[in-house]
Specification:
Helices cover 47% and strands 14% of the residues. The chain has 356 residues and is α/β, with parallel strands linked by helices. The longest helix is centred in the N-terminal third of the chain and has 18 residues. The model has no long low-confidence stretch (mean pLDDT 96). Bound molecules: uridine-diphosphate-N-acetylglucosamine.
């Protein structure tokens, strides 16, 4: 029996791809939901869209400080796993639920598999970086998405025998659902910003909102607001910047990938979107000092930028003036790793592992 731990929005796309592959190979699995995200549009909608199996248990933890949230999750997940131990704990990505799944399993001597292992930004102020380092250091089977991530693991002394370079489940899901680019009547920029470094700080949030306001003079700006971003805009009294912006609620997957795949530019601080836009050949500007997905900058369509509004607007303006399109330049190996079959590769490896 495999337990797949999910809790936050970006987990569910990966779990969807993995469960499709597990089902094909008749691997027995259950989903455990930590409750890290709980709004309909951050959670339930993905179960409905992907037709995911209902979680065998929902820990219902909700929000809190990192200590509160992870602490409560550990207590509840451990209780469940003591009574119902799986053969393998499978964790994805780098959110707090990922860390909890791996910590609980390791203390109970349950083998751990980690999808998206080895991603590093080098910025230990990001909670996700700590989640990744800890999870990788105690995982038994590590599934990096890129050669860079595999190198990172080796550099940290993780044995090659535990590492399986398979590619990216999130891209599997994207390729499974995305439709052909449509010719859009109206051009627009899509914005998805939610990192604490950008939105919990008034100065940087205001800079980003200023850039959106300026850009909206020229091109439509669609901005689905993550709950954290919404909360901080209200807290810092910055709502007036949004008057000319097409503000939306967080979107379900189908709506989001449709809007993303037809957008002229995407402005984001999300990890996943840097990858998805690179695969889809969409111009992406990431408001980040560092990226943990270097290949999106090197071979993809992604550029890193500070939150300075002049820099952002100038750069996007220039693109709109002079460049019509962008295209990724993935070397063969990266094309193979983004071929939509990484979950199938993982499933076959897990099948062997479980057979012993
Ligand atoms: C988490 C992940 C981040 C990921 C993001 C995607 C960690 C450390 N961070 O960040 O890596 O990119 O999810 O969304 O795990 N809230 C709601 N409704 C919800 C969920 C959250 O209103 O359904 C609000 C709460 O006020 C909460 C805040 O959003 O305090 C932040 O939620 P949290 O899960 O702590 O972190 P995210 O910023 O979503």
């Amino acid at each position: 029996m495999i337990y797949l731990i999910g809790g936050a929005r970006p987990n569910f796309m990966k779990i969807a791809a993995l469960t499709r592959a597990f089902e094909q190979d008749n691997l027995e699995y259950e989903i455990i939901h930590t409750g890290q995200h709980y709004d309909y549009n951050m959670d339930r909608i993905f179960f409905e869209e992907f037709g995911l199996k209902e979680p065998i248990v929902h820990l219902g933890i909700g929000s809190g400080t990192h200590g509160e949230q992870t602490g409560k999750m550990i207590i509840e997940l451990e209780k469940y796993c003591i009574d119902n131990p799986p053969d393998l704990m499978f964790v994805v990505g780098d959110v707090n639920s990922t860390l909890v799944g791996s910590l609980v399993a390791s203390k109970l001597h349950i083998p751990i598999a980690h999808q998206e292992a080895g991603m590093r930004s080098g910025d230990r102020k990001m909670p996700e970086e700590i989640n990744r380092i800890v999870t990788d250091s105690i995982s038994d089977y590590l599934f990096p998405i890129s050669p860079q991530d595999e190198k990172n693991l080796l550099k940290e002394g993780i044995s090659q025998s535990k590492i399986f370079l398979v590619g990216d489940c999130m891209i599997d899901n994207l390729l499974y659902y995305v439709k052909q680019k449509q010719k859009q009547k109206e051009e627009y920029i899509l914005v998805e910003i939610h990192r604490p470094a950008n939105v919990d700080n008034k100065e940087s949030l205001e800079e980003i909102l200023k850039s959106l306001k300026i850009l909206s003079d020229r091109i439509k700006v669609i901005f689905p607001l993550h709950p954290r971003t919404k909360k901080m805009i209200e807290k810092f009294n910055l709502s007036s910047y949004l008057e000319t912006i097409d503000v939306r609620s967080p979107m379900g997957y189908f709506e989001f990938i449709k809007i993303m795949s037809n957008s002229k530019v995407v402005l984001t601080d999300s990890d996943g979107i840097q990858q998805e836009t690179s695969v889809l050949n969409i111009f992406c500007v990431s408001i980040r000092d560092t990226t943990n997905i270097e290949y999106t900058v090197k071979f993809g369509t992604n550029t890193l930028m500070s939150s300075n509004h002049i820099e952002i607007t100038k750069y996007i303006w220039k693109f709109l003036d002079y460049k019509k399109d962008v295209k990724n330049n993935f070397p063969e190996q990266y094309k193979r790793l983004n071929d939509g079959k990484s979950s199938e590769r993982i499933s076959k490896i897990i099948e062997q592992i479980l057979k012993g």
